[in-house]
Write a structure and sequence with these properties.
Elements: E1 7-15, E2 18-19, E3 26-27, E4 30-37, E5 45-54, H1 57-64, E6 80-88, E7 96-99, H2 109-112, E8 138-142, E9 147-148, H3 169-176, E10 184-188, H4 195-204, E11 209-214, H5 217-225, E12 230-233, H6 239-252, E13 261-264, H7 269-278, E14 284-287, H8 300-305, E15 308-311, H9 320-328, E16 338-342, H10 346-355, E17 361-365
Parallel strand pairs: 10-11, 10-13, 11-12, 13-14, 14-15, 16-17
Antiparallel strand pairs: 1-4, 2-3, 5-6, 5-8, 5-17, 6-7, 7-9
Bound molecules: zinc ion (2 copies).
Length: 368
């Protein structure tokens, strides 16, 4: 059993990147290696020794793009965490766990009515549990929502960090879409950190057809091996051109024009425009990606099409064991989509991932 440390070693975001609108000057953000206290654990809390923490687009948003964290800096980022419980709640000690990225309060009306994934009092490591986050040696978290890892075979515990966020968000999205076996699905942004799991998950849940849309040729080819039946490269194409290609695929393969469930995972304006253009009769558009762009749409079409646009946020902790099972029994592949690096590479890794989205999800492993 690992010893309880005196201090938590961590990579703290001392300050995010600041862009001054008046002077147009950018002050670079700062990540610093430091020590923080091990908090007194309240009943129902545990201390997790971190095995790995994934670098999510959301972390980059906090560090580079002015997205505010709930707990003000300095704080440690990182919410895609796997590890081993070493202190706190007796029943959990020694267990390997995945920490859900979003932990509902379990008390409010949203929690009581099954909508706890969007609980307004939810706790998220690396955002709203004080100074604590996953890019650390240890992290204190509530135990109620932990997902226990058993029989993981050859899959390293660090790799399973992606189940905490990237692989579970699509499950919630599929639930919101009421995804059923036999459904026809489009995933816009199928090459991204979350998108690749959206495609795999839709396929694993029995979708008849998965059409993936994105811009990276190499990653689109990979998507064809993992979930996608068809892909459309949207590079230099507007929504109309993509729609034309989509209709051609439908026609050639005897696929219907109606009832498609479209998952928009990027949050980028051109992708949202594609999604709205593809949305047809009795279709559903599920908005999985976040962005600030405004898109024009004749909303009356929803009436004419009897169609729906649905937002989705995070994933209920109760779904985590289902997704973990799908990963452990091979219905969702994570090994082809994960790369680990030492946590001390955090500054370079952030810079690199911010510049070009990486081929694989980068999981940082503690090397303090
Ligand atoms: Zn995330
Ligand atoms: Zn709540």
């Amino acid at each position: 059993m690992a010893a309880i440390p005196n201090k938590i070693q961590t990579w703290q975001m001392v300050q995010p990147t600041v862009f001054n609108k008046e002077t147009k000057e950018t002050t670079p953000g700062k990540l610093e290696r430091t020590e923080i206290p091990v908090p007194e654990l309240a009943p129902g809390e545990v201390l997790v020794e971190v095995a790995g923490c994934g670098v999510c687009h959301t972390d980059l948003g906090y560090f580079y793009d002015g997205v505010p964290t709930v707990s003000k800096p300095p704080l440690t980022l990182g919410h895609e965490i796997s590890g081993t419980v070493i202190a706190g709640d007796d029943t959990w000690i020694g267990k390997e766990v995945i920490i859900p990225a979003v932990m509902p309060c379990r008390k409010c009306i949203l929690c009581k009515t099954g909508r706890g994934n969007r609980c307004l009092n939810q706790k998220m490591p690396g955002n709203s549990i004080g100074i604590y986050g996953g890019f650390s040696s240890h992290v204190p978290v509530p135990s109620i929502d932990l997902c226990e890892v058993k029989d993981r075979g050859d899959i390293p515990l660090s790799h399973l960090a992606v189940v905490a966020d990237a692989a579970t968000t699509p499950y919630q999205a599929a639930k919101r879409a009421d995804l059923q076996p036999g459904d026809n699905v489009v995933v816009i942004g199928i090459t991204g950190g979350v998108g690749q799991y959206m495609g795999q998950l839709a396929s694993a849940l029995g979708a008849k057809t998965v059409v993936g849309i994105a811009r990276n040729k190499e990653k689109l080819e990979r998507a064809l091996k993992f979930g996608a039946d068809f892909v459309i490269n949207s590079t230099d194409k507007d929504a109309k051109a993509v729609s034309k290609e989509f209709r051609a695929i439908c026609k050639e393969n005897g696929l219907p024009n109606t009832g498609w469930k479209i998952f928009e995972v990027t949050g980028a304006k051109p992708a949202q425009e594609i999604a709205l253009t593809l949305l047809g009769f009795v279709g559903k558009l599920i908005v999985v990606g976040f962005g600030m762009a405004k898109v024009e749409y004749a909303i009356g079409r929803l009436m004419a099409f009897d169609a729906e646009v649905i937002g989705t946020w995070g994933c209920l902790p109760e779904y985590y064991p289902i997704v973990l099972d799908m990963v452990l029994n091979g219905r969702i592949n994570i090994e082809e989509f994960v790369e680990t690096r030492p946590m001390s590479s955090i500054a370079d890794t952030f810079a690199e991932a911010h510049k070009v989205p990486p081929m694989k999800r980068i999981v940082l492993t503690p090397d303090f």
